[in-house]
Amino acid sequence: xxxxxxxxxxxxxxxxxxxxxxxxxxxxxxxxxxxxxxxxxxxxxxxxxxxxxxxxxxxxxxxxxxxxxxxxxxxxxxxxxxxxxxxxxxxxxxxxxxxxxxxxxxxxxxxxxxxxxxxxxxxxxxxxxxxxxxxxxxxxxxxxxxxxxxxxxxxxxxxxxxxxxxxxxxxxxxxxxxxxxxxxxxxxxxxxxxxxxxxxxxxxxxxxxxxxxxxxxxxxxxxxxxxxxxxxxxxxxxxxxxxxxxxxxxxxxxxxxxxxxxxxxxxxxxxxxxxxxxxxxxxxxxxxxxxxxxxxxxxxxxxxxxxxxxxxxxxxxxxxxxxxxxxxxxxxxxxxxxxxxxxxxxxxx
Length: 349
Ligand SMILES: [Zn+2]
Known about the structure:
By secondary structure, the protein is of the alpha/beta class. It has two domains: 2-254, Zn peptidases (Aminopeptidase, 3-Layer(aba) Sandwich), CATH 3.40.630.10; 261-333, CATH 2.40.50.100. 18% of the residues lie in helices and 28% in strands. It has six helices and 19 strands. The strands form four sheets. A nine-stranded mixed β-sheet has the order 1-2-4-3-7-10-8-9-11, sandwiched between helices. Helix 4 links the parallel strand 8 (156-160) and strand 9. The chain is globular. It binds zinc ion (ZN). Zinc ion (ZN) binds at residues 41, 44, 103, 148. Residues 41, 44, 103, 148 line the site of zinc ion.
Protein backbone atom coordinates (compact mmCIF):
# COMPACT_ATOMS: atom_id res chain seq x y z
CA UNK A 1 0.00 0.00 0.00
CA UNK A 2 1.30 3.37 -0.97
CA UNK A 3 0.11 6.22 1.24
CA UNK A 4 0.31 9.74 -0.16
CA UNK A 5 -0.74 12.84 1.74
CA UNK A 6 -1.65 15.63 -0.66
CA UNK A 7 -1.71 19.21 0.58
CA UNK A 8 -4.53 21.57 -0.43
CA UNK A 9 -3.90 25.21 0.39
CA UNK A 10 -6.78 27.02 2.10
CA UNK A 11 -8.12 30.29 0.76
CA UNK A 12 -6.22 32.45 3.26
CA UNK A 13 -2.64 32.28 4.53
CA UNK A 14 -2.12 29.98 7.47
CA UNK A 15 -4.45 27.15 6.48
CA UNK A 16 -3.93 23.96 4.51
CA UNK A 17 -5.83 20.72 4.28
CA UNK A 18 -4.41 17.20 4.03
CA UNK A 19 -5.93 14.63 1.70
CA UNK A 20 -4.79 11.06 2.31
CA UNK A 21 -4.73 8.81 -0.78
CA UNK A 22 -4.09 5.07 -0.49
CA UNK A 23 -2.97 3.16 -3.58
CA UNK A 24 -2.87 -0.60 -3.92
CA UNK A 25 -0.92 -1.95 -6.88
CA UNK A 26 -2.55 -4.66 -8.95
CA UNK A 27 -0.55 -7.32 -10.80
CA UNK A 28 -2.58 -7.41 -14.03
CA UNK A 29 -2.74 -4.19 -16.07
CA UNK A 30 -5.75 -5.57 -17.96
CA UNK A 31 -7.81 -6.13 -14.80
CA UNK A 32 -10.40 -3.50 -13.85
CA UNK A 33 -9.17 -0.55 -11.80
CA UNK A 34 -11.21 0.66 -8.85
CA UNK A 35 -11.55 3.98 -7.06
CA UNK A 36 -13.43 4.41 -3.79
CA UNK A 37 -13.94 7.57 -1.79
CA UNK A 38 -16.04 8.36 1.27
CA UNK A 39 -17.39 11.35 3.17
CA UNK A 40 -17.51 13.82 0.28
CA UNK A 41 -20.15 15.49 2.43
CA UNK A 42 -17.72 15.77 5.32
CA UNK A 43 -19.49 13.97 8.13
CA UNK A 44 -21.17 11.08 6.30
CA UNK A 45 -19.20 8.33 7.96
CA UNK A 46 -20.86 4.97 7.12
CA UNK A 47 -18.64 4.79 4.02
CA UNK A 48 -15.55 5.65 6.03
CA UNK A 49 -16.49 2.83 8.39
CA UNK A 50 -16.85 0.38 5.47
CA UNK A 51 -13.43 1.45 4.15
CA UNK A 52 -11.98 0.92 7.63
CA UNK A 53 -12.89 -2.75 7.14
CA UNK A 54 -11.99 -2.93 3.44
CA UNK A 55 -8.53 -1.34 3.58
CA UNK A 56 -6.82 -4.14 5.60
CA UNK A 57 -8.37 -6.68 3.22
CA UNK A 58 -6.92 -4.82 0.25
CA UNK A 59 -3.54 -4.76 2.00
CA UNK A 60 -3.73 -8.53 2.54
CA UNK A 61 -4.75 -9.17 -1.07
CA UNK A 62 -1.86 -7.03 -2.32
CA UNK A 63 0.65 -8.71 0.02
CA UNK A 64 -0.54 -12.20 -0.96
CA UNK A 65 -0.43 -11.52 -4.70
CA UNK A 66 -4.23 -11.69 -5.02
CA UNK A 67 -4.77 -8.11 -6.14
CA UNK A 68 -5.15 -8.13 -9.92
CA UNK A 69 -6.50 -4.62 -10.53
CA UNK A 70 -5.10 -1.46 -8.97
CA UNK A 71 -7.26 0.22 -6.34
CA UNK A 72 -7.21 3.81 -5.09
CA UNK A 73 -8.98 4.67 -1.83
CA UNK A 74 -9.61 8.12 -0.34
CA UNK A 75 -11.17 7.44 3.08
CA UNK A 76 -11.85 11.08 3.98
CA UNK A 77 -12.45 12.65 0.56
CA UNK A 78 -13.30 16.09 1.90
CA UNK A 79 -11.01 17.48 4.61
CA UNK A 80 -12.62 20.91 4.12
CA UNK A 81 -16.13 19.72 4.93
CA UNK A 82 -14.80 17.42 7.63
CA UNK A 83 -13.58 20.50 9.49
CA UNK A 84 -16.62 22.73 9.04
CA UNK A 85 -18.51 23.25 12.27
CA UNK A 86 -20.94 25.91 13.36
CA UNK A 87 -20.83 25.88 17.12
CA UNK A 88 -21.49 22.24 17.94
CA UNK A 89 -23.08 21.28 14.63
CA UNK A 90 -21.21 19.70 11.76
CA UNK A 91 -21.92 21.32 8.37
CA UNK A 92 -20.37 19.04 5.78
CA UNK A 93 -22.72 19.39 2.81
CA UNK A 94 -22.04 22.91 1.55
CA UNK A 95 -18.73 24.77 1.32
CA UNK A 96 -18.81 27.67 3.75
CA UNK A 97 -16.92 29.83 1.27
CA UNK A 98 -19.59 29.76 -1.45
CA UNK A 99 -22.56 27.71 -0.16
CA UNK A 100 -21.89 25.29 -3.05
CA UNK A 101 -22.76 21.65 -2.37
CA UNK A 102 -19.51 19.65 -2.20
CA UNK A 103 -21.18 17.06 -4.47
CA UNK A 104 -22.22 19.46 -7.21
CA UNK A 105 -20.44 21.65 -9.75
CA UNK A 106 -17.71 19.19 -10.71
CA UNK A 107 -16.14 19.85 -14.10
CA UNK A 108 -17.92 17.94 -16.89
CA UNK A 109 -15.38 16.79 -19.48
CA UNK A 110 -16.05 14.63 -22.52
CA UNK A 111 -12.93 12.44 -22.55
CA UNK A 112 -10.65 11.02 -19.84
CA UNK A 113 -7.85 13.53 -20.30
CA UNK A 114 -6.45 14.94 -17.02
CA UNK A 115 -5.24 18.03 -18.89
CA UNK A 116 -8.90 19.08 -19.13
CA UNK A 117 -9.11 19.29 -15.33
CA UNK A 118 -7.34 22.53 -14.58
CA UNK A 119 -8.88 23.65 -11.31
CA UNK A 120 -6.15 22.16 -9.09
CA UNK A 121 -3.98 25.20 -9.73
CA UNK A 122 -2.91 28.43 -8.07
CA UNK A 123 -5.60 31.08 -7.90
CA UNK A 124 -8.47 28.60 -7.52
CA UNK A 125 -10.55 28.27 -4.34
CA UNK A 126 -9.86 25.25 -2.17
CA UNK A 127 -13.20 23.49 -2.81
CA UNK A 128 -12.65 23.61 -6.57
CA UNK A 129 -9.07 22.39 -6.13
CA UNK A 130 -10.36 19.51 -4.08
CA UNK A 131 -12.95 18.59 -6.73
CA UNK A 132 -10.39 18.60 -9.55
CA UNK A 133 -8.00 16.52 -7.44
CA UNK A 134 -10.65 13.87 -6.73
CA UNK A 135 -11.72 13.77 -10.37
CA UNK A 136 -8.14 13.17 -11.49
CA UNK A 137 -7.72 10.35 -8.97
CA UNK A 138 -10.85 8.62 -10.33
CA UNK A 139 -10.31 9.38 -14.01
CA UNK A 140 -8.82 6.07 -15.20
CA UNK A 141 -10.86 3.78 -12.93
CA UNK A 142 -13.41 1.34 -14.34
CA UNK A 143 -15.20 1.04 -11.01
CA UNK A 144 -15.91 4.33 -9.21
CA UNK A 145 -17.77 4.26 -5.91
CA UNK A 146 -18.60 7.49 -4.08
CA UNK A 147 -19.73 6.47 -0.60
CA UNK A 148 -22.35 8.70 1.03
CA UNK A 149 -25.28 8.16 3.39
CA UNK A 150 -28.80 9.48 3.83
CA UNK A 151 -30.62 10.63 6.98
CA UNK A 152 -32.42 7.36 7.75
CA UNK A 153 -32.85 4.45 5.34
CA UNK A 154 -31.39 1.28 3.86
CA UNK A 155 -28.41 1.11 1.51
CA UNK A 156 -29.33 2.36 -1.98
CA UNK A 157 -27.60 3.57 -5.14
CA UNK A 158 -27.71 6.37 -7.67
CA UNK A 159 -26.12 5.68 -11.04
CA UNK A 160 -26.27 6.71 -14.69
CA UNK A 161 -29.09 4.90 -16.54
CA UNK A 162 -26.56 3.60 -19.06
CA UNK A 163 -25.01 1.42 -16.34
CA UNK A 164 -28.21 -0.33 -15.30
CA UNK A 165 -28.79 -3.27 -15.01
CA UNK A 166 -25.14 -4.20 -15.67
CA UNK A 167 -24.29 -2.93 -12.19
CA UNK A 168 -26.86 -4.99 -10.30
CA UNK A 169 -24.02 -6.93 -8.66
CA UNK A 170 -23.15 -3.84 -6.59
CA UNK A 171 -26.78 -3.49 -5.46
CA UNK A 172 -26.89 -7.19 -4.58
CA UNK A 173 -23.72 -7.29 -2.44
CA UNK A 174 -24.80 -4.20 -0.52
CA UNK A 175 -28.32 -5.52 0.01
CA UNK A 176 -29.73 -2.31 -1.43
CA UNK A 177 -33.31 -1.24 -0.86
CA UNK A 178 -33.46 0.39 -4.31
CA UNK A 179 -31.41 1.65 -7.23
CA UNK A 180 -32.21 5.07 -8.69
CA UNK A 181 -30.93 5.73 -12.19
CA UNK A 182 -30.54 9.12 -13.81
CA UNK A 183 -30.51 10.21 -17.41
CA UNK A 184 -28.69 13.38 -18.30
CA UNK A 185 -27.49 15.81 -15.69
CA UNK A 186 -27.55 15.76 -11.91
CA UNK A 187 -26.10 19.24 -11.41
CA UNK A 188 -22.58 17.88 -12.04
CA UNK A 189 -22.44 15.56 -9.05
CA UNK A 190 -19.30 13.45 -8.68
CA UNK A 191 -20.88 10.35 -10.23
CA UNK A 192 -22.05 12.29 -13.28
CA UNK A 193 -18.62 13.91 -13.64
CA UNK A 194 -16.84 10.55 -13.24
CA UNK A 195 -19.02 8.88 -15.88
CA UNK A 196 -19.22 11.66 -18.48
CA UNK A 197 -15.63 11.29 -19.82
CA UNK A 198 -16.33 7.62 -20.65
CA UNK A 199 -19.81 8.04 -22.12
CA UNK A 200 -18.72 8.28 -25.73
CA UNK A 201 -16.49 5.22 -25.58
CA UNK A 202 -19.24 2.82 -24.49
CA UNK A 203 -18.17 -0.51 -22.99
CA UNK A 204 -20.55 -0.05 -20.11
CA UNK A 205 -20.62 -3.65 -18.90
CA UNK A 206 -17.12 -3.26 -17.49
CA UNK A 207 -17.88 0.11 -15.93
CA UNK A 208 -19.59 0.94 -12.65
CA UNK A 209 -20.00 4.50 -11.42
CA UNK A 210 -22.31 4.96 -8.47
CA UNK A 211 -23.21 7.14 -5.57
CA UNK A 212 -23.56 4.60 -2.80
CA UNK A 213 -25.86 5.71 0.00
CA UNK A 214 -24.96 3.57 3.00
CA UNK A 215 -27.94 3.77 5.33
CA UNK A 216 -28.36 6.74 7.68
CA UNK A 217 -25.84 9.14 9.11
CA UNK A 218 -25.99 7.53 12.56
CA UNK A 219 -25.47 4.01 11.21
CA UNK A 220 -21.79 3.98 12.05
CA UNK A 221 -20.51 1.03 14.03
CA UNK A 222 -18.75 -2.32 13.86
CA UNK A 223 -21.68 -4.36 12.58
CA UNK A 224 -22.68 -2.15 9.64
CA UNK A 225 -19.01 -1.44 8.84
CA UNK A 226 -18.28 -5.17 8.62
CA UNK A 227 -21.34 -5.89 6.48
CA UNK A 228 -20.73 -3.02 4.06
CA UNK A 229 -16.94 -3.54 3.95
CA UNK A 230 -17.49 -7.22 3.21
CA UNK A 231 -20.02 -6.28 0.51
CA UNK A 232 -17.54 -3.94 -1.18
CA UNK A 233 -14.86 -6.66 -0.98
CA UNK A 234 -17.15 -9.25 -2.61
CA UNK A 235 -18.03 -6.74 -5.32
CA UNK A 236 -14.33 -6.27 -6.11
CA UNK A 237 -13.81 -10.04 -6.15
CA UNK A 238 -16.80 -10.50 -8.46
CA UNK A 239 -15.45 -7.86 -10.83
CA UNK A 240 -12.02 -9.52 -11.00
CA UNK A 241 -10.11 -6.85 -9.09
CA UNK A 242 -9.28 -9.29 -6.28
CA UNK A 243 -8.83 -13.06 -6.44
CA UNK A 244 -10.39 -14.89 -3.51
CA UNK A 245 -11.91 -18.33 -4.04
CA UNK A 246 -13.31 -18.26 -0.50
CA UNK A 247 -15.44 -15.15 -1.06
CA UNK A 248 -19.18 -15.73 -1.24
CA UNK A 249 -20.32 -15.33 -4.87
CA UNK A 250 -22.58 -12.39 -5.71
CA UNK A 251 -26.25 -13.34 -5.87
CA UNK A 252 -29.06 -11.66 -7.83
CA UNK A 253 -30.49 -8.26 -6.91
CA UNK A 254 -34.16 -8.57 -6.03
CA UNK A 255 -34.97 -4.94 -5.20
CA UNK A 256 -36.26 -2.08 -7.33
CA UNK A 257 -34.16 -0.44 -10.02
CA UNK A 258 -36.06 2.57 -11.37
CA UNK A 259 -35.44 6.06 -12.79
CA UNK A 260 -35.00 8.62 -10.04
CA UNK A 261 -38.00 10.45 -11.52
CA UNK A 262 -40.10 7.69 -9.91
CA UNK A 263 -39.23 9.10 -6.50
CA UNK A 264 -41.90 11.19 -4.82
CA UNK A 265 -40.25 13.72 -2.55
CA UNK A 266 -42.78 14.46 0.19
CA UNK A 267 -42.20 18.01 1.39
CA UNK A 268 -43.51 19.88 4.41
CA UNK A 269 -46.39 22.29 3.66
CA UNK A 270 -45.92 24.02 7.03
CA UNK A 271 -43.21 24.25 9.64
CA UNK A 272 -43.40 22.72 13.09
CA UNK A 273 -42.85 19.50 14.99
CA UNK A 274 -43.14 16.29 12.97
CA UNK A 275 -44.81 13.09 14.07
CA UNK A 276 -44.01 10.38 11.51
CA UNK A 277 -46.43 7.56 10.79
CA UNK A 278 -44.16 5.68 8.36
CA UNK A 279 -40.55 4.53 8.43
CA UNK A 280 -38.05 3.41 5.79
CA UNK A 281 -38.99 0.02 4.39
CA UNK A 282 -42.75 0.58 4.75
CA UNK A 283 -44.90 0.12 1.65
CA UNK A 284 -47.61 2.79 1.48
CA UNK A 285 -50.77 3.22 -0.54
CA UNK A 286 -51.92 6.46 -2.19
CA UNK A 287 -53.44 8.77 0.38
CA UNK A 288 -51.87 7.03 3.38
CA UNK A 289 -50.88 9.28 6.29
CA UNK A 290 -47.10 9.84 6.23
CA UNK A 291 -46.67 12.46 8.93
CA UNK A 292 -48.41 15.10 11.00
CA UNK A 293 -46.89 18.55 11.29
CA UNK A 294 -47.68 20.41 14.47
CA UNK A 295 -47.09 24.17 14.38
CA UNK A 296 -49.10 24.95 17.54
CA UNK A 297 -48.59 22.34 20.28
CA UNK A 298 -51.80 21.66 22.18
CA UNK A 299 -54.08 22.84 19.37
CA UNK A 300 -55.43 19.84 17.45
CA UNK A 301 -56.94 22.16 14.84
CA UNK A 302 -53.45 23.31 13.84
CA UNK A 303 -52.18 19.80 12.99
CA UNK A 304 -51.47 19.41 9.28
CA UNK A 305 -51.56 15.83 7.97
CA UNK A 306 -49.24 14.91 5.10
CA UNK A 307 -50.26 12.02 2.83
CA UNK A 308 -48.56 9.85 0.23
CA UNK A 309 -49.46 11.03 -3.26
CA UNK A 310 -48.97 7.63 -4.89
CA UNK A 311 -48.28 4.07 -3.72
CA UNK A 312 -44.69 3.05 -3.17
CA UNK A 313 -41.80 2.09 -0.92
CA UNK A 314 -40.66 4.52 1.77
CA UNK A 315 -36.94 4.65 1.02
CA UNK A 316 -35.65 7.35 3.36
CA UNK A 317 -36.84 9.65 6.14
CA UNK A 318 -35.39 12.90 7.39
CA UNK A 319 -33.62 12.74 10.74
CA UNK A 320 -34.88 16.06 12.08
CA UNK A 321 -38.19 16.43 13.87
CA UNK A 322 -38.07 20.25 13.85
CA UNK A 323 -39.24 20.86 10.29
CA UNK A 324 -39.28 24.00 8.15
CA UNK A 325 -41.69 24.75 5.29
CA UNK A 326 -40.46 22.94 2.19
CA UNK A 327 -38.17 20.50 3.99
CA UNK A 328 -37.99 16.98 2.53
CA UNK A 329 -39.76 14.53 4.83
CA UNK A 330 -39.49 11.18 3.05
CA UNK A 331 -38.58 9.76 -0.34
CA UNK A 332 -41.12 7.27 -1.68
CA UNK A 333 -40.15 5.08 -4.63
CA UNK A 334 -43.23 4.62 -6.77
CA UNK A 335 -44.11 2.38 -9.69
CA UNK A 336 -44.22 5.18 -12.25
CA UNK A 337 -42.90 8.66 -12.85
CA UNK A 338 -43.82 11.12 -10.13
CA UNK A 339 -46.19 13.88 -11.19
CA UNK A 340 -43.82 16.36 -9.53
CA UNK A 341 -40.57 14.96 -11.01
CA UNK A 342 -38.14 17.49 -12.44
CA UNK A 343 -36.63 17.14 -15.88
CA UNK A 344 -32.98 16.57 -15.00
CA UNK A 345 -31.00 17.80 -12.05
CA UNK A 346 -30.27 16.19 -8.70
CA UNK A 347 -33.06 14.94 -6.47
CA UNK A 348 -31.91 17.08 -3.54
CA UNK A 349 -30.16 20.43 -3.19
ZN1 LIG B 1 -23.72 12.80 0.73
